Amino acid sequence: MQPNPPQYPQQPGSPYPQQAGSPYPQQPGAYPQQPGMQPVPYFGPPQKKGFPTWAVLLIVVVCMFPVCGFVGLAAIPLITVNTRDARRIEGEELLVAMKNRVKVAYARTMSRPSTLTGDFDMGGCEVNQSEMEGLYFRVRDSVAHSGPNARLSCNPIENPSDGTGHIDFFLAGEGAQSADRVSWEQAP
Questions:
Q1: Is residue 100 predicted with pLDDT exceeding 80?
Q2: Which of 58, 90, 98, 100 has most Cβ atoms within 10 angstroms of its Cβ?
Q3: Domain extents in the chain
Q4: pTM of the full predicted structure?
Q5: How far apart are alpha carbons 82 and 76 in whole angstroms?
Q6: How far from each other are the two terminal CA atoms of the chain, in whole angstroms?
Q7: Angle at the Cα of 149 (from 85 to 120), degrees rounded to 5?
């Protein structure tokens, strides 16, 4: 004598009633059992084949760290150059401000100033020390002259690799309205 197979309750919401004598519950979306047919068991979706997802993620993460590191190392020189150029802009602004002070002193006294900090009567431009210094550069307290040209220079305060800046300009005459030329020398 064979034991009776267990009877499972009807699946809620199933449009097909469970067949009498079937040991398997009727699955939603399955074809209805016909009388006299062997029941088709339901085993769920087929097992996935191939590489496991966690292994793919591990490989991607392990490979991406060195790539990100190399990209970061390649970006360091670009960032360094950009920050150096940004610091040099401050030096150029200081040089232009001091150039204007030299031109004012020349216009007042009609003599070439030799320093920035002295009085007008003593060959200076009456500039305070604090006006000659920024966060990254300090303007030298001397004015060099050659012919109608004058030259001011500034040195870096903290980072010698920023270089030394120079501005060449005309004090008076035909070239007084021409553009000033700012140049930079790299530190050795």
A1: yes
A2: 98
A3: 88-185
A4: 0.58
A5: 10
A6: 104
A7: 95
